[in-house]
């Protein structure tokens, strides 16, 4: 069976790829074809997520073993065939190509073509330019959960045993807000 997949980007409304791939191909074959068709390097980490109809992430298919343990179902791209997880027209996948910013492509299984097979995936429609593969750290901070820095968006230098050091806050980040003077708080 052949799957026809439609791939879109939320960063470029004119970007569209349609890929046909054999249902017995692995997720790694799909990964490599996607990277090739959009001109991305294969040296960056990528991952797939099966998603529900509202694009909420469910099952992850990883490029390498992430050591999640036996209590979690883990799927590796190299050993997982598309037909193992993709069964129905309309199924959604998210292909994350920029792990730092969680940027990716939205993929929908738009057609199942029985009685056909393909030796290798093919791109049947290629429109628009793909977004840059990796983003700047500043861009990643705006897209990531919690505002970016490892401490959930707040710099660890702001904290002391007594609480937040208000003198360390950047007032430009609070323009337009009526903020009390630090001396008024003590």
Give a quick rundown of the structure.
Helix content is 12%, strand content 30%. The chain contains three helices and ten strands, in the order E-E-H-E-E-E-H-E-E-E-H-E-E.
Describe the model:
The protein is α+β, with helices and mostly antiparallel strands. It has 3 helices and 10 strands, in the order ββαβββαβββαββ. The strands form 2 sheets. The protein has an 8-stranded mixed beta sheet with strand order 5-4-3-6-7-1-2-8, covered by helices on one side. A two-stranded antiparallel ribbon has the order 9-10. Mean pLDDT is 81; it is low at 144-161, 173-180 and 182-186.
Judged by helices, strands and strand pairing, the structural class is: alpha+beta
Strand order of the largest sheet: 5-4-3-6-7-1-2-8
Q: What does the largest sheet look like?
A: 8 strands, mixed
Outline type: globular
Q: How many DSSP H or I helices? A: 3
- Strand-residue fraction? 25-35%
Distance between the termini: 71 Å
Overall pLDDT metric: 81
Question: Stretches where pLDDT falls below 50 for ≥5 residues?
Answer: 144-161, 173-180, 182-186
- Helical amount: 10-25%
Q: What is the chain-wise order of helices and strands?
A: EEHEEEHEEEHEE
Number of strands: 10
Radius of gyration: 22 Å
């Amino acid at each position: 069976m052949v799957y026809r997949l439609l791939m879109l980007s939320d960063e470029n409304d004119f970007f569209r790829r349609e890929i046909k791939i054999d249902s017995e191909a692995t997720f790694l074959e799909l990964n490599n074809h996607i990277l090739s068709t959009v001109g991305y390097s294969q040296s960056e980490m990528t991952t797939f997520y099966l998603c529900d109809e509202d694009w909420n992430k469910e099952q992850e298919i990883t490029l390498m073993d992430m050591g999640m343990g036996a209590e979690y179902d883990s799927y590796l791209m190299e050993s997982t065939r598309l037909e193992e997880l993709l069964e129905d027209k309309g199924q959604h996948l998210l292909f994350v190509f920029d792990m730092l910013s969680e940027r990716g492509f939205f993929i929908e299984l738009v057609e199942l073509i029985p009685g056909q097979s393909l030796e290798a995936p093919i791109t049947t429609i290629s429109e628009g330019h793909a977004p840059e593969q990796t983003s700047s750290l500043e861009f990643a901070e705006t897209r990531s959960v919690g505002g970016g820095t490892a401490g959930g968006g707040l710099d660890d230098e702001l904290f002391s045993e007594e609480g937040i050091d208000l003198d360390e806050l950047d007032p430009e980040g609070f323009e337009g807000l009526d903020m009390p003077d630090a001396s008024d708080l003590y």
